[in-house]
Amino acid sequence: MVHRDDLAPESAPSPSAPPPQGGAGRIAIISAGVGAGHDGAAAGLAERLAEHGYLVDRHDFLDLLPTGTGRLLCGTYHRMLTWIPDGYQRLYATTDRAARPGAVWRALFRAAEQRTLRALAPDTRAVVSTYPGASQVLGALRRRGRLTVPAFTYLTDFSVHALWVAPGIDAHLAVHPVPAAQAHVQGAAAATVVGPVTDARFTPAPAGQRTAARERFALPADAPLALLVAGSWGVGPVRRAAAEIQETGVAVPVVVCGRNEALVEELRGDGIEHTFGWVDDMPGLMHACDVLVQNAGGLTSLEALAAGLPVASYRCIPGHGQTNADALEEAGLAAWIRDPADLGPVLAELLHGPRGRAQRAVGLDLHRLAPGPVTAIAARTGQQPTPDAQPAVRRFPGQRRIALTAVTMAATACLGVAAPLAYAYNETPARFTAVAHYLDGDGR
Questions:
Q1: What is the pLDDT of residues 222-267, one digit of tens each?
Q2: Residues 6+ apart with CB under 8 A from 138
Q3: What's phi and psi for 25, nearest 5 deg?
Q4: pTM assigned to the model
Q5: Phi-psi category of 185—alpha, beta or left, where left has phi over 0 and alpha has psi -120 to 50?
Q6: Cβ atoms 30, 132 nearer than 8 A
Q7: Percentage of residues of the chain with pLDDT beyond 70
Q8: DSSP 60-108
Q9: Cα of 162 vs its chain's centroid, Å
Q10: What DSSP designation does 395 have?
Q11: Which of 405, 399, 401, 400 is nearest to 428 (CA)?
Q12: Which among 224, 180, 196 is positioned nearest to 352, based on CA atoms?
């Protein structure tokens, strides 16, 4: 599995549990406690792998860096987003243009290699990264032959920064053709569309539950509700966005501030009545609301799409927030509102018009039609899922409401996903340069 000659005997780990009889094997997932999106994707992957008979080990990349370095890196990132967002934008853009990570990054990643090897159980069959730094480490280990099992990157973002694409990674798994295309253009190996891995609780509100959810969260019974989220850290111009939503009169803002308790108090002082800190029952809160407004384009956007909510990107944070907004708009999955004057009209379209209905349809199809990551992982490990395992399948009532174009059908054949492209191709065909480039090649 791993070349372990250079490890002291006492450092070699033992399996956390005996291999299952007739099971599919052990998979390690390396995430990072940076915000909540990378860990959320790791949790979704772990759930699906376990459903198919795999044993799953999870590791935090921040703990695999030299002592204290990971937390320092996370804290610096948080402070840049909060205090000097323009500086973060410049750093993001600079590293995205680079052909390879800079010397400091390479040294940091190299320092994590030994701990990464030590963290992997001897019977590990594959390693999946949901964080770009971990992908860089795994790719380097694969290139030098020190990691001898397949290594995968699961792209948690809708846009693909250069650090996500690591030479040596066996396959890059994407939630949609747009990030798969971006990764392919940057030279990613085997860019493959597998779809999202959101928690199975994120489904459209069953009949009668919308009213109950509003009562549980003490929300207005009849008014349209716009759920405004800003990640687990509650960063970005959230107060301004909440005030502007309220001023439109189109919807009542319902704001989730994550772990930013100071922001909760500020918003309540601003007169934003329905303000929450960390919410454990986000599926329930989404059942109560009518549209999602987000600023980072991460996991919460995918959860909202699974819950049947149309999505708008507004006052996005720098770097990945803006590139994700662009990619989500390119995919026809979210409206990117760049001008505050457009906020009210676009929210009205999403709440009551054909644009909102189209987004709901493609968002649900994104989750319903994608093949999932387990098949892609199993194909490269040589270990098939246990035949009696019953994967959780999210099912939605009703017929698909959007006709597929010929271009979408071509994307289906090449990429394994169909309906999420239909609306965007029908409405804005000129914008799909990355997908067109991907389809011109071999699609892998």
A1: 999 999 998 777 788 999 999 999 999 999 999 999 888 999 999 9
A2: 30, 116, 127, 129, 147, 151, 153, 166, 168, 169
A3: 115, -175
A4: 0.78
A5: alpha
A6: no
A7: 74
A8: EHHHHSSTTHHHHHHHHHHHHHHH-HHHHHHHHHHHHH-SS--HHHHHH
A9: 16
A10: -
A11: 405
A12: 224
The three-state secondary structure class of 327 is helix
134 Cα distance to chain centroid: 16
Tokens of 261: 């308790």
User: What's 366-380 look like in SS3?
Assistant: HHHHCCCHHHHHHHH
- 237 phi and psi, to 5 degrees? -80, 65
Give CA–CA dist 430/273, Å, rounded: 42
Residue that has been written with the tokens 């019953």 in this structure = 390
Six token digits for residue 12: 């070699």
Nearest to 366 by CA among 426, 277, 305, 428: 305
SS3 content of the chain, % helix, strand, coil (to 5): 50, 15, 40
**CB of 248 within 8 A of CB of 339?**
no
Residues in the chain: 444
Question: Which residue type is seen at 301?
Answer: S
**In this structure, what token pair is assigned to residue 44?**
């979704």
276-297 b/e with 16+ CB inside 10 Å = b? bbebeebbbbbbbbbbbbbbbb
- Given the structure tokens 């928690």, which residue do they identify? 199
Give the residue carrying structure tokens 């099992």. Answer: 149
Owner of token pair 């990551």:
373
Mean pLDDT, all residues of the chain: 79
